[in-house]
Design a protein that fits this description.
single chain, 460 residues, alpha/beta, Arc Repressor Mutant, subunit A, pyruvate-formate lyase- activating enzyme, 2 domains, ten-stranded mixed sheet, 17 helices, metal-binding, coproporphyrinogen oxidase activity, 4Fe-4S, HemN_C, Coproporphyrinogen-III oxidase
Length: 460
């Protein structure tokens, strides 16, 4: 059974620090340059021998307009011809990987951005056809092929085309339906545009619709956000992601166009989150973890219940056994015990690919200790529970001795009721689920060693 989380305002205020989201461990800030082709080849060869399924991620960085809150790697341009050369480079990069990954079954595929629907229908067709040429795309109900949709850049024809290409899941950015908020963040998107895309998805038998909302944007308050949430719930999405807006104008220039005086206070942000969680649970949604909610019959919920939930750079997923191959500028790959990331700047990425070299910018090869701690953090953040005996058997350690320092640090959290420590288990309690990042941070050697959390967002 999935336990209902519990809101404890006093604890939330006490533990409101900055920390990683743990889409990987070690986190991407620890990736080092240079990352060599030898490192890649070692990982690719080991992966090829194991013949594990493959998850493909394609980063499409282009946007026609800028959203002031956005911290994604993007290229804002009206010159859509740039996408033509970029797709050629994506295809060329696929060719580089084909020797090692080409014969593997692809059970998961995702186009993210930027705005993937920025591409013309012809470019979408070309990219998917070439993907099918280089990789073995699974063509059955088990495949999860998803794409991020901007309703301002999609219509019924677009949706029909995506369905024909094999996409069966969509994710929509709404952020907020309030027109005052939309104007303040330069994301004017009508309810009619959003409804049209969701109607198309349902009519065309897409099996899942995810909706993204952001709290903490200018001019939001608890009541206004719940009004938007009610409109979203009328659309009955299968999944919802409720993200906390992190205002970091010193790092992300577009955010400088947002006036800090228009942002809700920290207390109001917490009120928005608290009432949103209550609202979603009352509406029948299940808290998956880390901002994510899903309907009871959704595959994420089923994976949560059965212990099959996994987390990677795209968030929570049911495809635990997959290697993740990222293509395009800034895309991150996770193959076995190796991570690598492509150049984040479009010019550098394009230059490397056109020189017939892998466009790596940096990477990381995990040690045995890294792999151990990654498994501990993954179990906690996905299942809110850790079987310490299982970890001992898997890694050949004495858990209490190996993690004596960490267990001592967890005692205060246990006294606060965040988790229960028993002989064979660490179990996150309902009031600790919203603070799962704090619990995971205890096992993060790099965070402790570098004593730097300012590069991360608030845990809540």
């Amino acid at each position: 059974m999935v336990q209902a989380l519990e809101w404890d305002s006093q604890l939330i205020h006490r533990y409101a620090v900055n920390g990683p989201r743990y889409t990987s461990y070690p986190t991407a800030v620890e990736f080092t340059a240079p990352f060599s082709e030898v490192d890649y080849l070692n990982a690719a060869k080991q992966s090829k021998q194991l013949n594990t399924p493959l998850s493909l991620y394609f980063h499409i960085p282009f946007c026609a307009n800028i959203c002031y809150y956005c911290a994604c790697n993007k290229v804002v341009t009206k010159q859509r011809s740039q996408a033509v050369s970029y797709i050629k480079n994506l295809i060329r990069e696929m060719h580089f990987h084909a020797e090692y990954f080409g014969q593997r079954e692809v059970t998961q595929l995702h186009w993210g951005g930027g705005t993937p629907t920025y591409l013309s229908l012809e470019l979408m067709q070309q990219l998917m056809e070439k993907t099918n040429d280089y990789f073995q795309l699974v063509d059955d109900a088990s495949a999860d092929y998803s794409i991020e949709i901007d309703p301002r850049e999609a219509d019924w024809a677009t949706m029909g085309h995506l369905r024909q290409l094999g996409f069966n899941r969509i994710s929509l950015g709404i952020q907020d339906f309030n027109p005052v908020v939309q104007q303040a963040v330069n994301r004017v998107q009508t309810e009619e545009e959003t409804l049209a895309v969701i109607d198309a998805a349902r009519t065309l038998s897409f099996k899942s619709v995810n909706v993204d909302l952001i709290y903490g944007l200018p001019h939001q308050n608890t009541q206004s956000f719940l009004t938007s949430l009610d409109k979203v719930l009328e659309l009955a999405p299968n999944r919802l992601s409720i993200f906390n807006y992190a205002h970091l104008p010193e790092r992300f220039k577009p955010q400088r166009r947002i006036s800090e005086k228009d942002l809700p206070s920290p207390a109001e942000k917490l009120s928005i989150l608290k009432h949103t969680i209550e609202h979603l649970i009352d509406a029948g949604y299940v808290y998956i973890g880390m901002d994510h909610f899903a309907l009871p019959d959704d595959e994420l919920t089923e994976a949560k219940v059965t212990g099959q939930l996994h987390r990677n750079f795209q968030g929570y997923t049911t495809h635990k056994a997959c290697d993740l191959l990222g293509l395009g500028c800034s895309a991150i790959s996770q193959v076995g015990d190796t991570y690598w990331q492509n150049h984040s700047k479009l010019d550098n990425y394009s230059q490397q690919v056109n020189q017939n070299t892998f466009p790596f910018q940096r990477g990381f090869v995990l040690s045995t200790e890294d792999s151990l701690r990654r498994e501990v953090i993954s179990q906690l953040i996905c299942h809110f529970e850790l079987n310490t005996q299982q970890i001992e058997q898997q890694f050949g350690i004495d858990f209490n001795r190996h993690f004596a320092y960490e267990l001592d640090a967890l005692q205060l959290m246990a006294e606060d009721g965040l988790l229960t420590i028993s002989e064979d288990n660490l179990t996150v309690n309902p009031k600790g689920q919203l603070l799962i990042r704090n619990i995971c941070m205890v096992f993060d050697q790099y965070l402790t060693r570098n004593n730097e959390t300012t590069r991360f967002s608030k845990v809540i």
